[in-house]
């Protein structure tokens, strides 16, 4: 049987170790309590609401979903839990933006102007949505044809569009580097993040790193890692 709390504790210990090894976390003392500079996003795609509720009761409040219809069902089932933060992290089709704007507080995968403007418009149309939608731009850092993401040269222009949408808040960048990517890929993401921070005070999030590259991502400035199977068990693939 999966022990969600133990799994969360193990991941948080890995994050802490990675922060210490990279010099991002001062050693713990009784006089100084340093919170982790890297937050954990629990990727709950394909996992049932019951497991998400177990993680919530263990103190995890941020959850990432890739598949909209599945996510909406779980969000509805878990509406009784306060302070749940839902992050959409999958590719976005234009006809899905209305529901994404309605049900999520974060979107990590904005990669083109049309999606940004549609999200902004749907929030304006939805009187129930009281807060700006937090946006990360997905960057195709490894230039893979099979992956979504804005090209490096187009980041600043897309960032300007998002920043000028009154119902969106530009929070940062997200990337999924190719498997076994070298440090140069992570260094480039870190540089792009720092560059974006210089232009926009609201930027504070670099969504980078999963189970296989957590230490590497943390060493290069990640502020949020996305972990799924190490928390919830092996992924159940959709047909």
TrEMBL record:
The keyword ATP-binding does not apply. PANTHER family: PROLINE SYNTHETASE CO-TRANSCRIBED BACTERIAL HOMOLOG PROTEIN (PTHR10146), PYRIDOXAL PHOSPHATE HOMEOSTASIS PROTEIN (PTHR10146:SF14). Pyridoxal 5'-phosphate (PLP)-binding protein, which is involved in PLP homeostasis. It comes from the Bacteria. Keywords: Pyridoxal phosphate. Belongs to the pyridoxal phosphate-binding protein YggS/PROSC family. CDD domains: PLPDE_III_Yggs_like. The lineage of its organism: Bacteria, Pseudomonadati, Pseudomonadota, Gammaproteobacteria, Alteromonadales. Gene3D superfamilies: Alanine racemase. NCBIfam families: YggS family pyridoxal phosphate-dependent enzyme. This is Pyridoxal phosphate homeostasis protein. Residues 30-235 form the Alanine racemase N-terminal domain. Pfam families: Ala_racemase_N. The modification N6-(pyridoxal phosphate)lysine is found at residue 45.
